[in-house]
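Subject line: Sequence and fold of a protein, written as structure tokens
Body of memo: The sequence and its backbone structure tokens, given next.
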Amino acid sequence: MSRLVGSLALGLLVLPLLNCGGSQHSPDEKYFMIVTNAKAPYWQEAAAGLTKAASQLHVRAEVAGPDTYDVKAQHDQFQDVLKQKPTGILVSAGDPNLIKGDIDAAISQGVPVLTIDSDAPASNRLTFIGTDNYKAGLLGGRLAAKELKFRGSVVIYSMPEQRNLNERLSAYKEVFDNYPQIKISEVVDVKGDPTAVFDKTMDLIEKNAKVDAFICLVSVACPEVAEVLNRKHVAGKVVVAMDTDQRTLEGIQKGLISATIGQKPFTMAFFGLKMLDDLHHHPLPSLTAFWAQDSLAQIPTFVDTGATLIDQSNVDKFIQARNSTTTKQ
């Protein structure tokens, strides 16, 4: 009899614990990731991270943003999302000044907002999750300088309105300043358009302009540079890319791209959604507190997701590892 009573008592204790194991989420919860170019391979990789986290958490999550690079359209999309009363928002700031008011409006309405990939530090966003872009620029700059043998003319492809790209550019310039014989001849605003990169590169090659290195601070650029060099049978150029879409990796394998700096957009979105979920179920005392200056802050100001230098020595292993991970998912 004592054993029976003991078993019944244990069962009564275990039953609430089993019930607690059920989902704490409600059907009303919905998260958004707002990007500047939803069709870009970079953001499709991030979308995979968002989907993976949403599946694990049993929540709804959706990617919002224009299909081509358009910061004004992103601003409009953010306003549309806010009308849907989202549970939380991840956003990559295409134009930090333009998106600041949208972020602040969301925060004031009690919607937690985290920036990923490209920050808007003047806004009231809670945390930035992404690459340390200055360190990434130093990594690329040092590689480019070495490949150039510390002399040569450099063309850089960027988008000046994005803070993350400006941080990379600043680091490249700092590295090149150490080598007086390396000169940046032009910084090209590609406006998120791969065609603009292709046309500019083709023009430089056909004019036989003195360009020893092409530096791409944005992922869409260097696959187009590699395409032009391949078509025109041009060899011996230093090409340093950004990110790990398929065409970039193939360019490294073919020797058309010297190296690329691989970011982790999957991780940014995956971790970002989990952090938003935690903030929803364990709310901060205030969304508007100045957490960055609080030594007892419950959230970090910056989460560095890391970056990897990929060249011909490790590109095959990188592809193999990524394919293996993708298959397991």
Summary: The CA atoms of residues 292 and 301 lie 6 Å apart.
